[in-house]
Structure formats: C-alpha cells, structure tokens
Amino acid sequence: MTTIAPIQLLFDECLGRPHVAALATFVKLAKHEPIINVIHLFDLFPAGTDDSIWIPATAQQGFLLVTADRHQKHSRRKHRDAPLPLLCAQNGLRHVLLGGTASQQKMFDKMLTILSVWHQLPTVAASDPGSRFRLEHVARGVGRLVAKHVSDYRPPAGHLF
User: Mapping DSSP to helix (H, G, I), strand (E, B) and coil, where does residue 94 land?
Assistant: First the structure.
C-alpha cells in the first residue's frame, strides 16, 4: 500500500491562532489519507514578518496557503509592496484566496466554509506550484473552490505592479 505524503496547510491571519489550533485538533480525528497538517503562520514566523520572507520559505517547503489577503483597494498594504497573490504565484506557493463574503464571515462560519471544501484540498495541494484557487461563499458555512489563473489578478488602480 502506498502512503500519501501529508499536506501542509498554512493559515495566515484569516483565522486566529486559537481557531487554527481547534481546526488542527478536529481534523486529526480523520483516520484516512491524506493527512492534512494544519499550521498557523505565526507558528513559523513572528507577526509582522514581511511577505517577501515567509512566502518563498513556505513555498519551498510545499505548503498550501489559505488567506483572505487578496490585495484589494482597501488593503492596509503600501502600494509599493508586491501583492501577496502575486508573490505566491511568483514563488510557487499554492494558495486559496477567501472570497469577499467568505472572508467576512464570523470565525466559526469561516471554519465551516473551509471544512465544506476539505476533501478538495488534496487536489489543490497537487496542483501546479503557484496555482491559485478562490473559496467562494455559497451559503452560511458552505463554500465552493474555483481554480483561478494567475493572469486573472488585477492590481488596484495606481499600483506599481
């Protein structure tokens, strides 16, 4: 019998550390492959670490990132910083971007939305390096994963990239 390598699922600030820890504990109850290890970004890097540091490092280790940072106009990032989705693509970090409504849910409903597409994550993790998916809100606690092309990214007006 072939053993499937565990998937390293990384959450940034889109979920708080306690929520990621609870999710990690819950999914360990699954006794089937593939195993999905759930990790919070702050367990690997201190808060405030520049994206240009942690994105290449986590990409090299084969992580799959879940983030709400789509680099929209209201983003707190400075316009001279490369947008997170672009850095992910350039560095080969597979990533799932939470859609607007999905990212604005209360934490519990956001976790349910992520769990509603849980069985699709192995396919996402096996996609080409730098692949982008969007987790769209369908109903309360229910989502849909949609593959996006890197060329679908449109930076905000006035952005340097």
Answer: strand
Number of alpha carbons in the 13 Å side-chain half-sphere of residue 144? 6
Model's pTM, two decimal places?
0.85
Cα separation, 139 vs 117, in Å, equals: 13
| Residue closest to 90 by CA, chosen among 61, 129, 54, 146 | 129
Let me know: does 102 contact 143? Beta carbons within 8 Å: yes
What are 27-76's pLDDT values in tens digits? 999 888 789 999 999 999 999 999 999 999 999 999 999 998 865 544 45
Strand 36-40 and strand 142-148: pairing? unpaired
**Within a 10 A sphere around the Cβ of 157, how many other Cβ atoms?**
6
d(CA 62, CA 93): 7
Convert the pLDDT of each residue in 118-148 to its tens digit: 999 999 999 999 999 999 999 999 999 999 9
Find out whether 27 and 36 touch, Cβ atoms under 8 Å. yes
Q: Extract the runs of DSSP E, i.e. beta strands, from the chain.
A: 7-11, 36-40, 64-67, 94-98, 132-139, 142-148
Taking only Cα atoms into account, the Rg of the chain, rounded to an integer number of angstroms, comes to 15
Task: Say how far apart CA 18 and CA 12 lie, in whole Å.
Answer: 12
